[in-house]
């Protein structure tokens, strides 16, 4: 066999091995990078039901007492309905954000209330009743409604309609935390904070119809 040909073949084989090795390393790096991107993309979100809302037996006086013991400001009640697309938007795009969850968990006990539900709960007076009756008594007939309640069981502020972004939801929380509701309309406060709204983005169509009929 021609020594030159043998040597050429050996060089060729060596190059193929190096190319395969380099390609394998490249695949590993790409896999790690892709995994990192996926993890980075999901690290900022968590399940809303599990991480934003408090697991509760529906005893509001007990939950308020727990909030007080933990040094929180009070309670957030999220009035929702199963067929409400605005509620679903907040569950999937707002309440699932870790920064939103962490901020609100530090300040409020958050509880979801189904305005059509038959699940029994205890109101602030300790009376047991279905969630739909409680919603009725609270004057909630449309969704979503976000009610902030102080440690005495008194409503501090009520927001009607959807909050579309995590950023604005944090601004709403700061509005309540700072007591700005006592002297400033939320829309004015939000505008100063840079929130831009368009008609129909923050309230349900049904609520719009009610406003037009007033």
What is the topology, as strand order, of the major beta sheet? 2-1-5-6
The secondary-structure element order is HHHEHHEEEHEEHHH
CATH superfamily of the largest domain: Glutaredoxin
Rg calc: 27 Å
Instruction: Output the CATH class name of the largest domain.
Output: Alpha Beta
Unreliable residue stretches: 17-24, 26-42, 199-214
User: Percent of residues in helical segments?
Assistant: 40-55%
Give the strand tally: 6
Name given to the CATH architecture of the largest domain: 3-Layer(aba) Sandwich
Separate helix tally? 9
Notes on the structure:
The chain is of the alpha+beta class and 214 residues long. The protein folds into 2 domains: 1-43; 48-213, Glutaredoxin (3-Layer(aba) Sandwich), CATH 3.40.30.10. It is built from 9 helices and 6 strands; from the N terminus they run αααβααβββαββααα. Strands 2-1-5-6 form a 4-stranded mixed sheet. A two-stranded antiparallel sheet has the order 3-4. The chain starts with a helix and ends with a helix. Residues 17-24, 26-42 and 199-214 have low confidence and may be disordered.
Q: What is the topological layout?
A:
Layout: H1 3-42, H2 48-51, H3 60-69, E1 74-80, H4 85-93, H5 98-105, E2 108-114, E3 120-122, E4 128-130, H6 131-137, E5 145-150, E6 155-160, H7 166-177, H8 186-192, H9 205-213
Parallel strand pairs: 1-2
Antiparallel strand pairs: 1-5, 3-4, 5-6
